[in-house]
Amino acid sequence: MTTLLHEDFARAYVTEVSEAVHRMLTRGTAAVDLVTSATIGGGEVRAFGNGGSSAIVRSLLLQLCAQAELPVHDTMMSPAALTYSTQRDDYRGVFARSLTGGIDRVGLVVVASVSGRSVNIRETIRLCADHHVPVLALVGGDGAQLETAHGMVWPTGTTDQQISEDAMLTALTLTAAALGPGTDPLSVHTERHLHALTTVDHGRLGVFLRKATEAISNAIRTRRRIYVLCPEGGPLALVAEHFAHNLNWDAPLGIEGVRPPLVVRDPSLADLTAIYNDHPDPAYGVRHQLSGAGPEDVVFLLAYDSAARTTREAIGTATEAGTRLFLLHRNGPSTQHHFQLPQTDDFALAALTQSVAHLICRTTHAALAANHDGSTAALSSSALMAQDLAPLRELSDTL
Asked: Is pTM beyond 0.85 here?
């Protein structure tokens, strides 16, 4: 695949995301009003989603807590708790069960489901209806597949999984940004973000996308490790989680003979608490993780500022190990393979970075499929735009 193809695809995809965001935010004021009225008396916000939507709704909770100073509850359970619960009961009720004990304290439940058919999401909405708890439900398409007794259905206007997820994260991010004390109104945040989308350098993004796709595809075929890390944490770490999830599950899915890649993610909570307790240097964890990397391993670093000390140390360790290093950042010096995103705040940067990650996953799937088929036919931008990864999921009808 040529750089020009990647450039055309990046331009078409970012344009579609921009249009979806614009459509959603015509109802943005209603979403801001819903969150405000639901939490004005101290009501707690909870949020639920499956797959990539899990990271998206947790990004909302992080922003509501950090920026808007609203009471939130991270009910997206830890892997240990979730696995333990689902071994003993049906997964369809796991979200609703986590709500039942303290539902009298809940002022708003936010759910995200592109299909709108996820059984556990529907169970949660039914429970909220029984207890008169308002729901902000983000769904793909026109939203007709879902309804809430109290609250608002917020459709993306597209059934494309990745574009819908990008629009959802952006809409939730800008809504939360408009809720903080002394913040600008939603219209100002919207204008800034839509401007940022128009200033994405598609030419440079095309080059980055081609090189990243080649590196990942080769790593998957040759069983090299792929690191997806965000040493500074925050909303970018949730994008890193989403990116790693897509690489591990979606990029190779449905391609015969391609095994799941070896994806190394950010440290777990068990790792982090041990690191911070035992090592006062916050860069210790990422240095330790990358000390096991070797030549031809691929490293993606997501950073707010590549000049930040922890990120610099991560870059140095990855470079010394001879890895193929790719940097996505907003500020600071570049590396050999990097892409610098437009100037935005930390949460809006996460939304832009998620779009780049989705681009990489689509082109990687196409490259892996072409390699398997031995196809030499040129792939078009329109074909890549039509190549939504969601239909490949075995459980897409129910989850």
From this structure: yes
